[in-house]
Amino acid sequence: MRATTNYLIILPLGVLEIDKHIEDFSIDEALGYIVFRTANAMRKTFAYLFKKEGIDVTPEELAILISLWKEDGLFQSEINDKTYKDKTTVTRILERIKKKGYIEKRIDEADRRNYKIHLTEKGKALKDKIVPVALKFRDMFLKSIDDRDMDITVNTLKVLLKISNEAGYK
Q1: What is the pLDDT of residue 23?
Q2: Cis omega (within 30 of 0) for bond into 59
Q3: Which domains, and CATH codes, for the chain?
Q4: Contact 68, 117 (CB under 8 A)
């Protein structure tokens, strides 16, 4: 196990030891870089599995669809918050999902200046097709990791996220 006393967090590159020269730094050992590469590899694998199963949904689109499967009829600002994405990004993703026929925008009856995002029947039905593939994906990644190690990993990442949020990133 590595000592934590001489480390300085450098994002997005990861962890640099203060008392070593930069020549000794290995990007492949940097925490931030490992997390980035892992997330990127998982995203690509997820997209590949979906494509292989004939599911025309990106991981970014799926995050929004999951929010709507949990609570249909959300304002875009609520989707922004639930998916941790900015307004411009969510607008772009919503347009793609709408073109695919999975969602529709409806005027909010309480305030006609606003609209809510609703699933179409096609969007609701998509859930039954996606869940088995998502479970296959989860099982593929978790088969070599015991529950204790996964709990430690998730909790550690949550602590790092909390520290980042407290530093000003949200």
Answers
A1: 65
A2: no
A3: 1-52 (no CATH), 57-134 (1.10.10.10)
A4: yes
Q: Which of 155, 158, 88, 97 is nearest to 126 (CA)?
A: 97
Q: Do the Cβ atoms of 68 and 106 come closer than 8 Å?
A: no
Quickly tell me which residue has 């290995």 as its tokens. Answer: 26
Burial (CB count <10 Å: 0-12, 13-18, 19+), residue 22: exposed
| Per-residue tens of pLDDT for the chain, all 170 residues | 444 444 544 545 455 555 555 666 677 778 888 999 999 999 999 999 999 999 999 999 999 999 999 999 999 999 999 998 999 999 999 999 999 999 999 998 888 888 999 999 999 999 999 999 989 888 988 899 999 999 999 999 999 989 988 887 65
CA 164 to the chain's CA centroid: 16
Q: For residues 41-77, b (16+ Cβ closer than 10 Å) or e, as one string? A: eeeeebbeebeeeebebbebbbbbbebbbeeeebebe
CA-to-CA separations, 110 to 3, 44, 57, 80, in angstroms, rounded: 57, 41, 31, 21
- The H or E element spanning position 160 is helix 147-166
